[in-house]
Amino acid sequence: MKKGKRYIEAAKLVDKAKLYDLAEAAELIKKTASSKFDETIEAHLKLGVDGRHADQQVRGAVVLPHGTGKEVKVLVFAKGDKVDEALANGADYAGGEELIPKIQNEGWLDFDVVIATPDMMGVVGRLGRVLGPKGLMPNPKAGTVTPDVVKAIADVKAGKIEYRLDKANIIHVPVGKASFTAEQIADNYKALMDAVVKAKPASAKGTYLKSVTITSTMGPGIKLNPIKFAGQGTAEK
Q1: Which residue, 146, 64, 72, 61, is CA-closest to 112?
Q2: Could you give the CA distance from residue 33 to residue 218 in angstroms, rounded to a whole number?
């Protein structure tokens, strides 16, 4: 794919052979995010695990100290008073079984996060084929299956993100916007890294953090030094 002029200019600022420190990378990412819109800053972490094995799955959630910079729409599946409680505490949408056909048949997906009370998971499970591939299925590990919908909504609105491995054993998540200060980007990135390092499976052998990269929506990747986060052996090139 042909790269645009702006990308080529931004790429000149990045030393591809260098593993940057986080503070330096956070400063540099702001220079490479030169589009007219507020680019999303993303983390891409390649892990030395095999997610095909249940005991090597890496999945969880973390509240970023400065949020993601994105307004998050929350849908809550609940019953009775919990529906009113959810709507009164910041949920954009809340309801029960009546929402199933709207999502299944009408393709309604105007939300970013789905939270469910445990007694609703039998109902929500019917949406697995729709919500699963989009990463929207509620999950206890991510704190999105819980009786405490008020706390779950507050966490999500404050900047809670879910991280999980893709099929190539890579985690891709947003950690802010180009309009953030370099310090805010670095704080968010460090919070994510701390969570992922703590989530290292006991069965994982060898180098856990194989590569750690930060990018903007339209900009080049900037490689960080994984050893700074994990204090482990040499990272793979």
Answers
A1: 72
A2: 7
